[in-house]
Design goal:
Shape: elongated
Strand content: under 5%
Oligomer: single chain
Low-confidence stretches: none
Helix content: over 70%
Mean pLDDT: 91
Number of domains: 1
Largest sheet: none
Structural class: mainly alpha
Order of helices and strands: HHHHHH
Number of helices: 6
Distance between the termini: 17 Å
Length: 165
Amino acid sequence: MKHISFKNSVDYLNKLRGVFYILVGIPLTIFLVLYLIFRQHTFTAYYTTMSDLLIKILASTFLLAGLSSFIFYFKKLPAARNGSSLRNKLEQYYLICITKFSWLMVVSLLNLTFYFLTSHAFFAGVYILLLIMFALNNPSYYNVVGNLKLKKEEREIMKNNSAIS
């Protein structure tokens, strides 16, 4: 496992949030561009004849794939909680979160690809739901401390922004 460099809780959260905002921002920018293009009726979709059943199956698959990132996260979280030190716990949590965020981004991009190809509003709706999934994962001090179930002394280190060794 590659170690991430951070000195204290603020540094750690800034790095985690930075990656989060990049991985949210890429599909969000693409969605906004596509939405505005389709709204102005300046672009015709490539596959306007795709069946509604196929669209619903694909959209449901994207939603389930997005939800699978949570399953991965909750399966890996106990290992991070049992880390040998606060630094080890935070490093493992970082990797778990980055994996979850990356998976949500990939699923969002695949969904947006079908939105681009079909211009069907169902894919736009699925993207909004995926964006809500992203929003539920916005890293904060309280999320990290609560999800890792840190001990009192570890919480104090995080709260006081002390050096993490």
